[in-house]
Specification:
With 94 residues, this protein is an alpha/beta fold. Helices cover 44% and strands 17% of the residues. The protein is built from four helices and three strands; from the N terminus they run H-H-H-E-E-H-E.
């Protein structure tokens, strides 16, 4: 049996687009949305601090919120700032 190259798998979280694709394939995006809708129950103008926001797609689930996303991965913050910068503030913090 072939040996799995751990480096390939550890590179997935470094690339926002590949990470999001993997999240879609395993159903994580749908599950996260459902969790937020059922348990968090976002309301307009809510203040949200998302520690470990990753590529930040959950900002879409918070209508007109005061959203702040933090992540240690600067690539994610660059991605989310370009894609959703008008919906919140995003910072790379270690």
């Amino acid at each position: 049996m072939g040996k799995i190259n751990q480096n390939r798998f550890s590179d997935i979280p470094k690339n926002s687009k590949i990470y999001l694709l993997c999240q879609r394939v395993i159903g994580a995006i749908h599950s996260r949305r459902r969790y937020i809708e059922e348990y968090v129950r976002p309301i307009p103008n809510q203040r949200v601090l998302d520690v470990g926001c990753g590529p930040g797609y959950v900002v879409e689930y918070f209508p007109k919120s005061d959203y702040i996303g933090l992540d240690i991965n600067e690539r994610y913050i660059q991605y989310v700032s370009c894609r959703y910068g008008w919906k919140g503030q995003f910072f790379a913090k270690s």
